[in-house]
Design a protein that fits this description.
Blueprint: H1 11-14, E1 23-27, E2 39-41, E3 51-53, E4 56-60, H2 72-89, E5 90-97
Parallel strand pairs: 1-5
Antiparallel strand pairs: 2-4, 3-4
Length: 98
């Protein structure tokens, strides 16, 4: 079993070190599989939420490598692997927040 602390590892590996039915609460921010490798020029739209790239306003859909999957099937396989392990580690009375 892992000691309390912070670990930088793939959750699918880390979850294997947690005992069955031992977790009271799960808080997670899962990937959404919405990243795209493109940027849209939105210079003519007045919106404070858009990122600035010099004088050009752009909307960037690249949220990071953690949110890229080769296919929807690969994304669903990842989510399934994670939540099978999460479910195994949760107590019957546990709560989950996503």
């Amino acid at each position: 079993m892992l000691d309390f602390g912070f670990y930088n590892m793939d959750c699918r590996e880390g979850l294997k070190h947690i005992d069955n039915s031992s977790i009271d609460i799960v808080m997670t921010d899962i990937p959404y599989n919405i990243s795209q490798k493109k940027v849209i020029d939105r210079t003519r739209i007045d919106n404070r939420k858009l990122h600035r790239d010099g004088k050009k306003k752009v909307l960037n859909f690249n949220y990071g490598d953690w949110d890229f999957f080769d296919s929807n099937a690969a994304f669903f396989e990842f989510i399934s692997e994670v939540f099978v392990e999460v479910y195994r580690t949760m107590k019957d009375s546990a709560s989950m927040y996503m």
